[in-house]
Amino acid sequence: MTKPLAPHIPLNRPRLIAPGPVEVSPATLLALAQPQMHHRTPQARAKFLEVRGKLAQLLGDSFEAVIVTGSGTAAFEGALVSLVPAGAKVVNASAGKFSERWGEMAERLGYAVVKVQKPWGELLDAGEIAAACKDAYALTITHSETSTGALHDLEAIAAAAKAVNPDIVIIADCVTSYGVAELRPGAWQVDVIVSGSQKAAATPPGLGFVLFSPEAESKLIKNTPKGFYLDLERELRGQKEANTPQTPAINLIYALDVSLDRLLSVPLEVLWAEKKRQNDALIAAGDALGCRSWSGRPTPAVAVLVPPAGSGVKRIGGKQVAAALADMNQRALPGQAPHEDTVFRISTLGYADRYDALAVAGILEDAFSALGHPFERGAAVSAAWRVLSN
Amino acid sequence: MTKPLAPHIPLNRPRLIAPGPVEVSPATLLALAQPQMHHRTPQARAKFLEVRGKLAQLLGDSFEAVIVTGSGTAAFEGALVSLVPAGAKVVNASAGKFSERWGEMAERLGYAVVKVQKPWGELLDAGEIAAACKDAYALTITHSETSTGALHDLEAIAAAAKAVNPDIVIIADCVTSYGVAELRPGAWQVDVIVSGSQKAAATPPGLGFVLFSPEAESKLIKNTPKGFYLDLERELRGQKEANTPQTPAINLIYALDVSLDRLLSVPLEVLWAEKKRQNDALIAAGDALGCRSWSGRPTPAVAVLVPPAGSGVKRIGGKQVAAALADMNQRALPGQAPHEDTVFRISTLGYADRYDALAVAGILEDAFSALGHPFERGAAVSAAWRVLSN
User: Where does the record place the Aminotransferase class V domain (chains A, B) (predicted)?
Assistant: First the structure.
């Protein structure tokens, strides 16, 4: 079914076109490879404070950043156990893999979890969530759902939840929206933002970020019984003074500093518009090949595309597309279990510019050509370029 | 005249799109950064021999490779002084900056130089060159002239020269054709091939290569009075045994090994076809913007393009185009002095694939748009993609 591989393929430059880990700039990698620094030196402590400041700058609000040595999941757990008292009611809004995870996590940790679930690919409903929030302590929600490609309307949901319960603590998984999509937690009344290093920050994995609003900070629990390493009240107190209770992944922090400088070299609005434009170009390329965005409100972090089906065109599976891209040395992703074959996922989330998005459109055309899918050559590239050059 | 820079430009990924130094793969850079090896260890000596073998493989003929720590010019000088006896007659065929350099070099070294010159941008004439070769000891010629973008017909020229003088030693500057353009020195009766690390070999600068045919090897002069460091007779004897008389840039040789593996992962015909396709795409993109290739027989190493002029369209200078590209963080080149403004030069010679060539077409469109040049948006990208996806 797949055409034989083109002979030039071994010469292809391998690319990470998955929504994290992402392409990392040579300058960032070079920072990582520096002679081993010690995290207690005045230089390292100054760098630590500088990076905390830049993380807040990338958010655009004067939130307090905690850098966790761990994944985004670790960071999310830290936010949860450091803010929500044992046994309290937690509303978990979910419509995909990652938002579901926060529900499982809260249940495991003994919270009284109320789940407001939507099928994968659909959008969360602000009214439905708000209705469950009346007597809840916290709401966990995912802004950009990487498993479905939906950018949920965090602004509307937070407004609705706060309207019925002004004290509710909103913990937002912004793992793939922070530094990518419009995000105004101060104005939107979102209390906690969670992300990680291997997404928009275009740094190798290993760091999670938690950013607390002033109000959330005032609600942090002292000596949470639900965690020791992830006690972010103690972490934040220490980190404000450039003291980390545990040893941080200091090389990654130096690397992150370099990556953040690139993102902060333009106003946030320009950064958001640019990442949206790149992702819109990927969706337009997919559209020209008969694919459609799984979500009607797509996140700019990743194009989650349903391959062509029906009306005389043979069905292509998401796994097939990802495999065809892998055959071309391009690392994309199929869907997330149990929807592996429903969609495929391509992204220019990391160290990639609009011309790389154009290149990915070309890659996608060649993958669909290898899969024997009928389309007019040049359609995807032209569609992408119309978006990019507009 | 130039439009204000687009706000997203600081987010552009800087690219080397000049014909050397070129983009280098992360794997190659990593090899360069290894713990300092010593060139006299058995491992380093084995690596040295391996790389010499791969250099011959990239040529496709069983020539003997000498690795010079120095530039391509050093390598060329080594070939000249190690093969041509003092005062002998040397025919210098030139039609651009680099071929002219070999004439100057031969004169400085005291050879009896006969110059067969063509204006820049034109093609060398085999008959004209052959007529000068009758009683010459050597012919110096540039295969791919990076200053004009011409790929001279080395096969025809060598055949004509050998027809009138079977003993003539043909030293070919293949700095930007080796590993890029069809090159069959055995069949074409070319005796010596000269190149360097920062071109198709996609390695940082610092190494020159000289490849000798068996016959050329037999003509090497012992103890040439014209050079000590560049005495390649002694070098070749040593290098065959993995002994270098002087200390080589051993880290660069380890890095080169990684880059050569990539190039040798496909048959030479595939590599040549792929680089030609990429460069043809750049020329097609330029064509769609009103540019034309300076040479009627373009080298696949670099697109040397004359910007639009006349018939109602305002003249754009080569320096302007290069500057507009530099404003976008893309390192291209204007023409070479004294033709700086006649042309601009763009290239995907190094670690770049066909999708990078598509990206460069997009970059070129945006540069011409910034210059206020009228054209139909999408024309250059579509033209490039037609070549690349064909």
Answer: 34-282
Does the distance separating the beta carbons of A358 and B265 come in below 8 Å? no
Strands, E assignment, chain A? 15-16, 64-69, 89-94, 112-117, 138-142, 144-145, 150-151, 169-173, 192-196, 207-212, 292-293, 303-306, 330-331, 333-334, 344-346
Q: Looking at the complex, does the CB of residue B280 fall below 8 Å from at least one CB of chain A?
A: no
Confidence label for A310 from pLDDT (cuts 50, 70 and 90)? low
The size of the A-B interface in CB pairs under 8 A is 120
Contacts of A61 (CB under 8 A, 6+ apart): A184, A185, A186, A211, A213
Spatial CA neighbour of A143 closest among A255, A202, A59: A59
B369/A389 CB distance under 8 A: yes
A57 interface with B at CB cutoff 8 Å: no
How far is residue B55's CA from residue B45's CA, in Å, rounded to a whole number?
15
CA-CA distance, A266 to A245, in Å (whole number)? Answer: 34
Judged by DSSP in three states, A274 sits in: helix
> What tokens appear for B239 in the block?
């290098």
Q: Which amino acid is at A195?
A: S
Interacting residues of A204 by C-beta distance below 8 A, sequence separation 6+: A21, A24, A32, A197, A198, A252, A255
Give the pLDDT score at A1.
54
Token pair, residue A65, equals: 């950043």
Q: Residue B4 pLDDT more than 80?
A: no
Pairing mode, strands A292-293 and A169-173: unpaired
Judging contacts by C-beta atoms under 8 Å, the chain B residues touching residue A377 are: 385-386, 389
Contacts of A115 (CB under 8 A, 6+ apart): A91, A92, A94, A103
Q: How many Å apart are CA B243 and CA B252, to the nearest integer?
A: 16
Instruction: Give the closest-approach CA distance of B209 to chain A in angstroms.
Output: 22
pLDDT (0 to 100) of residue B315: 83
Tell whether A214 is within 8 A of chain B (Cβ).
Answer: no
CA torsion angle for B35, B40, B41, B44 (degrees, to 10)? 70
Cβ neighbours of A157 (radius 10 Å): 27
- Which chain A residues in 313-342 lie under 8 Å from chain B, judged by CB atoms? none
Domains of chain B: residue spans and CATH:
26-263 (3.40.640.10), 267-388 (3.90.1150.10)
Average pLDDT over residues A211-219: 98
Where residue B311 falls among pLDDT bands split at 50, 70, 90?
low
Considering only CB atoms, which chain A residues are within 8 Å of B365? 385, 389
Residue B93 β-bridge partners? B116
Closest-CA distance, B3 to chain A, in angstroms, reads 15
What pLDDT, on the 0 to 100 scale, is given for residue B281?
A: 98
The answer to whether the beta carbons of residues A225 and A182 sit under 8 Å apart is: no
Contact B356, B342 (CB under 8 A): no
Between chains, do B7 and A266 touch, taking CB under 8 Å as contact? yes
**Which amino acids of B are annotated as binding site, given as ranges?**
345
Asked if A270 lies within 8 A of B7 by C-beta distance, the reply is yes
On whether any CB of chain A is under 8 Å from the CB of B268, the answer is no
Distance separating alpha carbons of residues A317 and A344, to the nearest angstrom: 8
Q: Chain A window 366-385: which residues touch B at a Cβ cutoff of 8 Å?
A: 366, 369, 377-378, 381-382, 385
Model ipTM? 0.92
Angstrom distance (rounded) from CA A210 to CA A218: 15
Read off the pLDDT of each residue in A78-90 and give the average, rounded to a whole number: 98
The C-alpha angle with vertex A62 and arms to A274 and A105, in degrees rounded to 5, equals 80
The whole-angstrom separation of Cα A190 and Cα A85 is 19
* Helical spans, DSSP H, in chain B: 26-32, 42-59, 72-83, 97-108, 126-133, 154-164, 185-188, 214-218, 232-240, 250-263, 268-288, 318-327, 354-370, 379-388
